[in-house]
Amino acid sequence: MSDFDKETENFVNWVQKQFSSVSSKFEVADLRKSGEGRGLIATDNIKKGEILFELSRDHILNIDNAALTQLRSENKAELYALNQWQALIACVAYEWFLGEKSKFYHYFNRFHIVASLIMSYSFDVDHPEEIETVEQEDAEEEEVNEKESHETIIMDDHHCEDAHHEINHHHTEDEDDELSVDEDLDEAVDPVYEDTYFKSMVPLADTLNSNTSHFNATLKYEKTKLVMVADKDIPKGEQIFNIYGELPNSEILRKYGYVELPSSKFEFAELLLSSIKVYFEGLFSTKIECIKEPQASHLIECIIETIAESEYLDEEMMRESDSTIISERYEIYANGEVLIDVVLLLQILTSILQAGQSDEKWFKKITKSIERKPSPELLALINRTILKSYQLIERNSFITKSVKDYLEELIKLRLSEYPTHIIDGTYNLPEKAGAFTKKELADVVLFNEAQCLRDVIDGKFPPKNEDGNDRYITIDDDKFLKNILKRKLEQEKSKPAKKHKK
């Protein structure tokens, strides 16, 4: 028997002794040939809702029950004053130091790299008090609604933010971990006592591999225990997958050191606000004769700032007071999925551009002071365009033709920034996981991102709704522009005609 198999056997025996319940319908399998280390394989058909295993909270490792915490009375307070990563690393290091005296010895003995163990296999587990609070709140709500109570408390969206799974088992476990530790350490800078969770090591749960497209099991948090439950029917012979979060390959690689093939279910690329600004500065300065380069820059900044401070958008889009559609980067998802924020931004910029083109004399007048202070007339135009653009897109699901065209041009510019071999058709994705170099991993990430961008210019934008219809209907620009300028035209008509001397 190889050392790998012996370590697996010892670990499985340890699990059987320590856990409250372990199903006999799966086994810990050697998946190194597919580059996945160890994983769980169903040895019998598993039904949706079946419990795969349960473990009490005293069998997960965190500062609440670590040997280091029990070593002396002062340790617990000192650990609580550290941030989550520091506290967990200290606890794990001491367990490692104890060797066979640690109750987690056969759990740790599977691993060979301490940094990989801690950074890649940890979970964020709510305090028992938090679970109890959720139980009480749920019970009160159910009593009001006269609903039956549920035994299992599944964390809501708020708690999921604190309990996203930070585990990894896609490394071959004998390999060095190449994660960027500094970035992950920065994510947990507050002291433990300010948080509502413990960063924890959860035996066996971290043996499940993750797959965003095929995950079929979920770890549920209860007051006294953690329970792994099948999310769907799992046929005999299939691997049991968890999910580490709705992450694209770029984040999976950064956090866990591997990539999913052919892609993550949650891939996206980014369109930068800085690129949008530069692009529209060029449009304003070339399409409107009275707007020169310095003015164009000030005008774009004025429009962006007015959008960011729009109380109308805050109210209509039910945004938080510090939230805005203006962001440094916008996510472009697969299959032409583009956030409404960037669509709305492009519609506003496009419509103001076209308003300037329609009457340059008037536009020159209202933008004359833009380098010092925007005129009331310009601010009125921007705010009316914000209002009408929101109504057009959000309420009526329309966009103008030029918005679609400009979006595609921006996407093409963004694509041109990717390496040539990624966008010229010569690159091919690997067919299966393996011992990839850093460059090979990066190429997979870049290819997936580029594909999201290609989807937009390959006709997948606008995307389809669930009913099969386009998310947005494209309408003529002139029709919408007349709506934008309606008030201006009415004011011009109401002005008395100038009398000319005979």
TrEMBL record:
Membrane-spanning intervals of the chain: none
InterPro entries assigned: SET_dom (IPR001214), SET_dom_sf (IPR046341), SETD3_SETD6_MTase (IPR050600)
Entry keyword annotation includes Transferase: yes
Residue ranges of domain SET in the record: 24-245
GO terms, molecular function: protein-lysine N-methyltransferase activity
Pfam families, A to Z: SET
GO BP annotations listed: methylation
GO cellular component, one term: nucleus
Keywords assigned by UniProt, alphabetized: Methyltransferase, Transferase
Domain of life of the organism encoding this protein: Eukaryota
Name of the featured protein: Ribosomal lysine N-methyltransferase 4
Species: Pichia kudriavzevii (Yeast)
